[in-house]
Amino acid sequence: MLKEMVKTMKTLPLFDPILEFDRLFEVLGPAALRMQAPEGHTVPIDVLEVEGQWILRASLPGIKPEDIDVSIDNKVLTIRGKLDFAQEHADSKVYRREIATGSFVRSVRLPNDVDVDKVAATFENGFVTVMLPRVPESRPAAIKVPLLSASQEQ
To answer: Does residue 82 lie in a domain region?
Structure first.
């Protein structure tokens, strides 16, 4: 039985990832170098709580402030815009493109305690920072509850 297993193992082809990659590259040809992220790529964000307000920071490298739109509709914060290098690459032969271009949008549902009338946004060094102040909690005034003894209940 052991001899048969060893004989079978010798006949199995070995998997070589480098050879497999080369084979795929031959099949795909130069198209493998033109990989591009699809339009509508994800915008990375951080959400923090600092000094009683929510802070949302979105990373948008290469985007101009005039190409960004920040809006709130029905408690949903949306950041949208467009990154376009078409003019920059018009006279060049592009061999590899990994920087996603085109339109992007990122929406985040806001918590109920956000004061949407006081939201502010800034843009600096490729980051959109949205300050989302929280509505102060309304706490009822302290109420004195009378304490009755068991003999008073009857």
So the answer is: yes
61-109: pLDDT as tens digits:
888 899 999 999 998 999 999 887 666 666 778 777 777 778 888 898 8
The range of the structural domain enclosing residue 100 comes to: 34-133
Task: Report yes or no on 17 lying in a domain.
Answer: no
The pTM is what? 0.60
In a domain, 3, yes or no: no
Instruction: Provide the CATH number for the domain around residue 66.
Output: 2.60.40.790
SS3 annotation, the chain: CHHHHHHHHHHCCCCCHHHHHHHHHHHHHHHHHHCCCCCCCCCCEEEEEECCEEEEEEECCCCCHHHEEEEEECCEEEEEEEECCCCCCCCCCCCCCCCCCEEEEEEEECCCCECHHHCEEEEECCEEEEEEEECCCCCCCCCCCCCCCHHHHC
